[in-house]
Amino acid sequence: KVSAGRVTANREQRARRTSTLSVPTYTWDKLDINVTNSRFQVWSGANFGARSFLLPLGVFRVDSVSRVNRGVIEIVGTSLESYIIEHVLTTPRTITKGSLIIDSIMQLIQESFPGVVQFEYGKGFEPPLGMVTDYDLTADTGKSMWDLVESLAFQANVEVYCAPNGKFRIAERVSLSTAEPVATFREGPGGVLVALNQVSSRDTTFNAVLAVGSSTNAEVPPVSYLAVDSDQTSSTYWGGSFGKKPKILQPDEALTSKDMCRERAEAELLRSKTVARAIDLSAIPNPALEPDDMV
Q: Does the pTM exceed 0.70?
């Protein structure tokens, strides 16, 4: 039995889920779990008398196992993206222009994962099965296979991650302008909100993005493109009262033309020019909530 535990889901982490469990045992008990081939799944449930539910919180690879003097075993795990993240290339790998993006994503994951891989699509998502790459994607020696997966996903405007049921999910990238709320938090009788803190900051807001590619000639500067917020009605208009605050992306060897740099810069500008408003809240647990859910 588990005496204590925690599951964290964070869309900003490459391996989306982490879990820490405490399992009490007698000092002479032997728990058949190790860091070489063990995995575990965490579920959360509740019983309301006539109604009950059980929801998966994630499938995890065991990353570490430790035992304290009183017999409690501490288990730390990360979700299954970890296998692909750890598969570092020993030779350069190229996804050629015109390759099917969704097929390539699945192939890379299957190649790296130790065992049978299950895939699923996000709810209501129509996968762009016929979409092909616009240009060659190359990952050098030392890069992760997950780097290629993320680059392909960016081209197709999709998210790829391991869902709570252990399947690799390919889902549409969430748009704040079109997504519908799935839960409501409120105070007072019948509410679930415990505490709320709201912060508005310009720290992560930019009104220009510079994307820089690569050049095979040391005497020729690499290709680049600067995308700016040119909408004069925008609160972050380049040259307006917000000021000029460009975001410079890390050079990307996959960007070999100005058009490719423009596509990357404009996509990043859409995300970066919004003034950040962060909400930190505490509420009665709802295990059905997922990263990317609108509330």
A: yes
